[in-house]
Amino acid sequence: MALQTGNWTFNGVGSAGNLSVTGVDDQGNVQGTLDGNAIQGFFDSNARKLVFMCTNPNDGSIQLFSGYLFSSVKVDFLQETLIGTVESFYGSGPQVQVSTDGWYANIGHVIT
């Protein structure tokens, strides 16, 4: 199954926002933004796994997101959900700190 492009409703790391997937090429490379900040990632269509990273502009941390795609059909509506974890890396050298949190994103459309 391919990763749906468009605006996903995002919730993670304590806040709601927008995950915009603008493109997925034939090799699975993903382009887009998370709340307007560029992401770089990869989607494995066989495993239905998305991995992407970005830099948090508020604190400079590097965030690594990993999640899996689930889908459900209700009558004529397809709901797709990504669910996963995010690791945030703060600081540098021996002072690096890592925190782990959860996230999810949803997108849906009418099946024609």
Care to describe what's here?
The chain has 112 residues and is an all-beta fold. The protein has a single domain (6-110), classed as Beta Barrel (Lipocalin). It is built from no helices and eight strands. It has strands at residues 6-12, 15-24, 29-34, 37-44, 49-55, 62-74, 77-90, 97-110. The chain has an eight-stranded antiparallel barrel. The protein starts with 5 loop residues before the first strand and ends with a strand.
Strand line-up in the sheet with most strands: 1-2-3-4-5-6-7-8
Percent helix range: under 10%
Mind telling me the CATH class?
Mainly Beta
Radius of gyration: 15 Å
CATH homologous superfamily designation: Avidin-like
Q: How many E-type strands?
A: 8
The whole-number mean of residue pLDDT values reads: 93
Q: What spatial form do the alpha-carbon principal axes imply?
A: elongated
How far apart lie the N and C ends?
A: 17 Å
Structural class: mainly beta
Largest sheet: 8 strands, antiparallel, barrel
Oligomer: single chain
N-to-C SSE string, H for helix and E for strand: EEEEEEEE
What is the strand content?
over 45%
Tally of DSSP helical segments:
0
Unreliable residue stretches: none
> How does CATH name the architecture?
Beta Barrel
- Which fold does the CATH topology refer to? Lipocalin
| Total count of domains | 1
Structural descriptors:
112 residues; 8 strands; 71% strand; elongated
